[in-house]
Amino acid sequence: MKLLLLLLVGALATETQFITEQLRMKLPQNEYNAQIVDMLELSLQQGGKIDSVISLLQKMLDDLNGEQTVSNQEHSQRITQYTNNIENLENNLASLQSEVQTNNQQLTELSSQISSLTQSSVSLKKQLNNVNSREETIRASRQQEIELKQKRQAAGDKILAAIQLIHDKLVQTVLNEQGSFLEVEDKKILTQQLKDELGERHPIALMVALTTEFDQETAKKVIQKLEDIIESIKDSEGKSAENETQANANYQAILRELTSIRDKLAQESQKTDSLLKTKQNDFVIAKRRSGQLVKDQDNTELLLQTNRVQKDQYDANYNSNTQKRESQVGTLKQAHQLLVENADKLRK
CA-CA distances (angstroms) from residue 13 to 22, 339, 346? Predict the structure, then answer.
């Protein structure tokens, strides 16, 4: 009986060795396959039941298939997530690039507008200064003109009063006297008065100075000449008054025109300065926005690159693990099939 048992054990060991050698020949040479074959050989040599070993292989197959199913599901979810993230980041990047382009165009337009408004502001202020200078010049010129006219008027009034006085004196003398009625001294005084008021070379002054006898007839001629001069002075003063009225009207009209021009220029200058300030503020905001957009664009590009790399790495790991798992499943299937085919022999 003991001999028979030894023979059976020896036969079983020989059959186990034969099966494991077949597995080694069929399976690719790698660490996992070597471990599986060694495990099966050890289990069978130590008296493990073939059905239990087959069940163990089946469980290992089920575990691997289950792991692959979970891995496939996780892979699908992760790839979908990566794909959505990448798509969203690409859309965000495209939107940022478009916004950067729009913002840069806005900066260019604002820069041009600021330059134009600055030139307009300088030009308007220059025009305002010119108008103010012109008004000051006109006012100063008008004041000089008024002062000159006042001096002329005062001088004219003085001459008129003196001539009128001489005239009245001669008239009174003519009415009261007959014949040669002016003494030599009186004639000298009269002559000097005429020269003082009318000038050294004035015809009347010369006529009186050269007249030897200043009789009534001569006095009447002088009186007539003086009356002509008085009338001429009064006419001149009348015309001067009319001219002054017209000059003042023209002066006021010019001032009104300058005031109107200044008001329009001031309003336009204020409007231009206000718009310039607005554009300058807009430029500062756009410039700040430009810097933020560049940062956002750089960050988005970095995130996009990171997601692409992570997706590729994850996909590569998944493919590697799947390939490895498929190889392990193939090994287990071959081992399982070989054991099932030789189960009866191993049970004896």
Answer: 14, 14, 9
